[in-house]
Design brief:
globular, three-stranded antiparallel beta sheet, mainly alpha, 18 helices, single chain
Length: 388
């Protein structure tokens, strides 16, 4: 397997295991398909590309090995054997774990690789039976860690087998939705429990791979993920250029048009319009935009601190809170963090007193108005499978 093919599997620290920057360009990531393999005769390619024959979520060899080494996750243990000296695996719940490619280790054995249909079945299990079935786990990070690792292995199997087309799209769309949801759901967790940079790296890789798959044909959900890419990478000239090069049919889709409008407002440094448009986004789109809300609110306070800087000017706190999409108390706290004086229910703007908070001074926080309230009664399974 080539070095560029391995890049797809995703690793945060080792080139052959994946990783790399989160915002890599589409051209470089197409090379694993276009440059490395298209020059080879098709007959040779068919002979050399491994085809998985493992019809279970975890190869039997790995199940036995992890049982002996007592490396089963509690989600995989057969009920009734948890207290045994060597707990046994539940064959219906054991899932192949990610392992970094190593010298002398053959990762292309057909019996260890799952074909596309089994990979999709595995993803559905991870979403429906682990991520969505563990609402009582607080923090949710245990379910996330397990699903994240197993999805990483799913992508690894896809890379080795060079899965493409509709089969790759069906898997990648669910992976992207899960990672987007997790980026919002876990934004308030401490770094020891959740690392947003690692999640971002794998999300960017999966999203870039998915958009590359869309370039090879028409797919019914392309507009959804083109919009999500624009919102998650708000302000990125690369993402914007890619969107503007889309076919007119995709560019004219309501989701893409709205995402382009939010992007334009952000680039024009118009935070009031950006936050107003953010109210029109659906739940998953709002999850994608969420990481940029702090910057939008900072820009709004900076803009008002210069435009309304006057000793005699008193701006209603409740009105400012509505613009920021916050309650009055969090809005007042945000003002204090930026050096903006709050006098009772009025805000006193001054360009001289405005200050940027120190790094980490304004932590990420979930948003009831702009995100949570839009989910409605949709279950997590419905959100990630695109049924919400």
């Amino acid at each position: 397997m080539s070095r560029k093919a391995n890049y797809r599997a995703g690793s945060n620290s080792h080139r052959r295991g994946g990783g790399g920057g989160g915002g890599g360009g589409p051209g470089g990531r197409r090379e694993w398909r276009q440059e490395q393999y298209e020059e080879e005769p098709s007959r040779t390619a068919e002979e050399t590309v491994p085809r998985g024959t493992c019809m279970t979520m975890c190869p039997l060899r790995e199940v036995r090995e992890r049982e002996q080494q007592r490396r089963l996750h509690r989600f995989e243990v057969l009920p009734g054997t948890e207290g045994d000296r060597m707990p046994r695996a539940d064959p219906s719940r054991a899932v192949k774990e990610y392992s970094r490619p190593a010298a002398g280790k053959d990762s292309t054995r057909p019996g260890d690789l799952r074909p596309p249909a089994v990979l999709l079945k595995t993803v559905r299990f991870l979403i429906d039976d682990i991520a969505a079935a563990s609402p009582a786990l607080e923090p949710w990070t245990e379910a996330y860690d397990f699903v994240f690792d197993r999805l990483r292995c799913v992508r690894q199997d896809m890379v080795i087998q060079r899965v493409s087309g509709a089969e790759a799209v069906a898997v990648l769309e669910r992976i992207v939705r899960f990672l987007l949801y997790a980026s919002y759901r876990l934004c308030e967790e401490p770094l020891r429990l959740y690392d947003p940079r690692i999640n971002d790296t794998h999300l960017q890789e999966s999203l870039s791979w998915l958009l590359d798959c869309y370039a090879s044909g028409e797919h019914p959900r392309q507009d959804e993920f083109q919009a999500l890419s624009l919102l998650y990478n708000l302000g990125s000239t690369r993402a914007l250029r890619r969107a503007l090069e889309l076919p007119e049919r995709v560019r004219a889709a309501p989701a893409v048009r709205l995402a382009l409008a939010v992007n334009r407002a952000h680039l024009e440094r118009n935070p009031v319009r950006a936050l107003r448009l953010a109210r029109r986004l659906d739940f998953l789109q709002s999850c994608a935009l969420h990481r940029h809300l702090a910057a939008c609110r900072r820009d709004l306070l900076l803009l008002y601190s210069h435009g309304l800087s006057s000793r005699d000017c008193r701006y209603p706190l409740q009105r400012l809170a509505r613009l920021l999409a916050l309650d009055s108390a969090p809005a007042a706290d945000l003002c204090h963090a930026h050096g903006v004086r709050v006098d009772g229910d009025r805000v006193v703007f001054s360009k001289a007193s405005y200050t940027e908070p120190p790094p980490g001074g304004v932590g990420a926080a979930r948003s009831a108005e702009l995100v949570d309230g839009k989910r409605g009664d949709a279950s997590l399974s419905e959100v990630i499978h695109g049924c919400a």
